[in-house]
């Protein structure tokens, strides 16, 4: 087995060698953007659905200094490693990971922000059971995800997710069915000459007059982050 070392952030470290999904740029961008319009001290409760290594939850804990962070993870080794990462962080007293399916998780409070890097493999999932459970859409489909978010958000709360660009319309349709409306859409291009391959979206209970639409280009020619991507990730990445 190839050794996978910890992913070093400026204020915390993320062990992820046992996780179904390793630390990746998609999740870190979500952790940097989610809830960007809220005042940090106003956020009291955050939920990370399908936390994996816990990296997004840890970013939220860093950004929102008074928030209690709940995380839910169905994959046992990932849940254990996320818990260990929480305990090793500066914010262990306000973070907890629950090892159970979302459908069985009973929230103890309504949430200001719910975040998720949700499953999207709808065909031919991996044969490895743990990864299949963590990432396959039959375990946590968009309808289940948006229904839970709608039911457990505060009235002024927001649900944020990141997913492949070609799945965004499916998520929007599922959200609207649960009376959640898109308020923010950020299309992510790997480079300026490439089409968007990821999208970060926010939904809220009150319909907005006009959805905020943005575009983020990740890399310059020589695989260096653009200024905007650098500014988003530099509060976290140790090497930026």
What do you see in this structure?
- The protein is an alpha/beta fold.
- Helix content is 28%, strand content 25%.
- The chain contains 7 helices and 10 strands.
- The chain has helices at 25-33, 55-63, 76-88, 129-135, 142-152, 168-177, 227-233; strands at 7-8, 13-14, 45-49, 68-73, 95-99, 111-116, 153-164, 181-189, 198-204, 212-217.
- It has an 8-stranded mixed sheet, sandwiched between helices.
- Helix 3 links the parallel strand 4 and strand 5 (95-99).
- The model has no long low-confidence stretch (mean pLDDT 91).
Question: How much of the polypeptide forms β-strand, as a percent range?
Answer: 25-35%
Number of helices: 7
Strand count, sense and barrel status of the largest sheet are:
8 strands, mixed
Rounded mean pLDDT is: 91
Which percent bin holds the helix content?
25-40%
- Class inferred from helices and paired strands: alpha/beta
Strand arrangement within the widest β-sheet reads 5-4-3-6-7-9-8-10
Q: Distance N terminus to C terminus?
A: 29 Å
User: What is the chain-wise order of helices and strands?
Assistant: EEHEHEHEEHHEHEEEH
The geometry reads as: globular
β-strand number = 10
Give short descriptive properties of this protein.
240 residues, alpha/beta, 8-stranded mixed sheet, two-stranded antiparallel sheet, 7 helices, 10 strands, globular
Short description:
28% of the residues lie in helices and 25% in strands. The chain is built from seven helices and ten strands.
């Amino acid at each position: 087995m190839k050794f996978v070392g910890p992913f070093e952030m400026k204020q915390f470290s993320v062990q992820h060698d046992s996780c179904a999904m390793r630390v990746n740029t998609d999740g870190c961008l979500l952790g940097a953007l989610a809830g960007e319009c809220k005042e940090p001290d106003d956020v009291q409760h955050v939920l990370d659905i399908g936390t994996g290594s816990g990296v997004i939850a840890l970013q939220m804990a860093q950004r929102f200094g008074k928030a209690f962070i709940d995380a839910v993870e169905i994959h046992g080794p990932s849940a254990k490693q996320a818990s260990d990462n929480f305990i090793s962080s500066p914010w262990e007293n306000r973070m907890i990971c629950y090892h159970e399916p979302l459908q069985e998780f009973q929230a103890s409070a309504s949430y200001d922000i719910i975040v998720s890097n949700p499953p999207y493999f709808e065909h031919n999932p991996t044969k490895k059971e743990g990864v299949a459970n963590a990432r396959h859409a039959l375990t946590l489909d968009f309808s289940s995800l948006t229904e839970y978010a709608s039911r457990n958000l505060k009235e002024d709360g927001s649900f944020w997710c990141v997913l492949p660009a070609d799945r965004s319309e499916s998520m929007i349709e599922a959200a609207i069915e649960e009376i959640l409306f898109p308020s923010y859409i950020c299309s992510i291009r790997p480079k300026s000459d490439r089409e968007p391959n990821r999208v970060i979206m926010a939904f809220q209970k009150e319909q907005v007059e006009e959805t905020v639409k943005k575009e983020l280009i990740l890399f310059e020619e020589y695989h260096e982050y653009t200024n905007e991507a650098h500014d988003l990730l530099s509060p976290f990445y140790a090497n930026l």
